[in-house]
Amino acid sequence: MQLDLNNLPSDPALLHRLVRDIASLIEHRNSEIERLRLIIKQLQRAQYGRRSERLDTDQFALGLEDLDTDLAVAETDPDPIAPLAPSPDGPPKRKSLPDHLPREEVVLGAGNEACAGCGGALHAIGESVSEMLDWVPAQLRVVRIRRPKFACRACGTVTQAPAPERPIAGGLATPALLAQVLVSKYCDHTPLYRQAQIFARHGVELERSTLAGWVGGACWWIESLHERLCKNVFASDHLFADDTPIPVLDPGRGRTKTGRLWVYARDQHGWGGPAPPAAVYLYAPDRKAERPASHLERFKGVLHVDGYAGFERLTSNGDIILAACWAHTRRKFYEIAEADGAPLALEALRRIGEIYAVEARIRGQSPAHRLAARRSLSRSHVDNFRLWLEAQLPLLPGRAKLAEAMRYALSRWDGLTRFLHDGRVELDTNPVERAIRPVALGRKNHLFAGSDGGGTRWAVLCSLIETCKLNGVEPYEYLRDVLTRMVDGYPVNRLDELLPWTWKEENPVKG
């Protein structure tokens, strides 16, 4: 708006209208400036700040490690002048060592000893037993397979035992070594080139390409088990869904492209459900809506999802009901509160916190109990929150970030209130968010998948390893045993017996 300050109109009505226009323009520009300022702060926080809404306990532990080390040094090297504190009579305040660990006995002072006072014979009246935890370094060994030949003197027939099946045709690796490589890469996030360096320190030169061939060969054996895991999970009636990007090498363009790992998790701990926890990963080269549609083609039930619009297509035939995520809704207000401490954002966080407080009290209860508690305690908080959103939204500029957060919540209200109608529905998608974290760690260490096939192998191994961890199964022991059984000709019609939770029943000891 251009104004000639030296030639203003003299008509009061025109001046009033001019002032109102100027005030409206200033309000619009201030709103736009505030919106852009919040965007800048969010981008700065995404790049430099902590992304989680609560303190990462692992990072917090890292910060305390040096303090714990300093304390241990101080306790180990006490002041030589100060008297030593008496040792406590009670047992040390630590967990006992697991029973399944092998134990080596060291007996001190055994034998026919004489009394130091009178020289008389000593007899045993008891003993003191203490334990220390030892480490046996991993070692490579060579399994030499000998197959003697026998000949018949009468007819000249030559007999020899058949060569055993190898997991990799013509390869050196046993199932145990393959399991070690797989777990190191996909569970402990150690890339193959680093593993090759570790093997070299043991005196065995293995090329990275050789290790890559082992990974591909091992995945060939367990792909069918991944299919059985997917079938089992998708037969459930309550799942959590999300996706995460992974960089994939695109040789034709000399750079990486963005693939996706679609993750589907089952977690019934919140309501004491009978199904074991599980997580399946499926690779896709893009994020098109038809990807989850094809994955969930036979799924019927409640699907916990975030704000991705592609999930809406799943509800067309009525077999799938979407439950929206309160954590994603809360995050919109949290980012605004972090940026400038807006009172309305803080009030929204307080109101959502009241809903979560009720959930904390009923976690692990039966669906009927949870539903009754939600209807008597949570419904009023939810209804009041909606009324508050509807009252505040018209008072805000349309393009304000706070208005966007409120519209985000109101547009998904049916999904957000699904938990008020089904005691098995959770408030958020945190189970699948937790399943995505190992992928993020691997993404930082692997840097990228070498191909779409590499993305598929990533999905296969992550599915089995993460499901093992969810069920308290040690991934190395599991993969070693499964590969051994498959190489030995395990029946295809009994693959369900090798799923982690069933395998655990035969192998209950973790480790």
From TrEMBL:
Domain of life (superkingdom): Bacteria
Residues of the Transposase IS66 C-terminal domain: 463-501
Limits of the Transposase IS66 central domain: 171-456
Domain Transposase TnpC homeodomain: 35-106
Chain intervals with Pro residues compositional bias: 80-90
Pfam family, one: DDE_Tnp_IS66_C
Ranges where the record places region Disordered: 76-99
Name of the protein in question: Transposase
Source organism: Bradyrhizobium elkanii
Lineage, highest ranks first: Bacteria, Pseudomonadati, Pseudomonadota, Alphaproteobacteria, Hyphomicrobiales
